[in-house]
Design a protein that fits this description.
Layout: E1 9-11, H1 16-24, E2 30-31, H2 38-47, H3 52-68, E3 75-85, E4 88-90, H4 96-106, E5 110-121, E6 124-131, E7 134-137, H5 142-152, E8 173-177, H6 180-184, H7 188-197
Length: about 200
């Protein structure tokens, strides 16, 4: 009897955090970064008054679809995340100055991290999910803030929120509601459930 071959898994994202989450979960996968015009997709949704949730889903899908067209029968994972605070959308900060301004804008306020994931095969979306964890930043002091920036270095530029919740960034918050993995950028448990249902990982 011929053993059943599990479908290949490809992560269409250059995010080290997403790769690490999948790796620690025991998955074997390849990484191929999808080059899509994220800024243009966001501009289009904003111009048409589209929701951040739909935009994040569209971005995740665009990435996975593009890569999946090049790899027959592979299950390709796309993901994206948009930070929303009082209807304002925040992008990943380009530099420390932008990170400083963003964190100050979020201080003592509640925001959502809209986290979308999808799986495509042969250019077709098989499954997607959007999660909306909510986080409330505390009214941190100027002294704490300056120390946080100094100790975090360039690491804060790697996340859309300009914080790394898994490290010192957790001290910025007074309340967190929602899935921890989604906050890190990948709704991991539902994704693993989907992969199991399609024979990509063991039941």
């Amino acid at each position: 009897m011929t053993a059943q071959v599990e479908p290949a898994i490809i992560l269409a994202s250059g995010s080290p955090t997403r790769s690490e989450l999948l790796r620690r979960a025991g998955l074997s996968f390849a990484v191929e970064v999808a080059h899509v015009d994220e800024a243009e997709i966001k501009r289009s949704f904003r111009a048409e008054r589209g929701t951040a949730a739909n935009c994040a889903a569209a971005l995740a899908t665009a990435k996975a679809e593009r890569v999946s067209r090049k790899h027959a029968d592979a299950l390709v994972i796309g993901a994206d995340q948009i930070l929303v605070c009082d209807d304002e959308w925040f992008d990943k900060p380009a530099d420390r100055s932008a990170a400083r301004a963003q964190l100050l804008a979020l201080r003592n306020r509640r925001h959502e991290l809209i986290s979308a994931v999808c799986v495509c095969r042969n250019g077709e979306r098989l499954w997607h999910l959007v999660d909306r964890p909510a986080l409330t930043m505390r009214a941190f002091s100027e002294e704490f803030f300056e120390a946080y920036l100094a100790q975090s270095g360039a690491d804060i530029l790697s996340s859309v929120g300009a914080y790394r919740l898994e490290t010192r960034g957790v001290q910025l918050f007074s309340r967190i509601d929602g899935d921890f993995f989604s906050i890190l950028g990948l709704p991991l448990l539902p994704l693993l459930g989907f992969l199991r249902s399609h024979g990509a990982i063991e039941e």
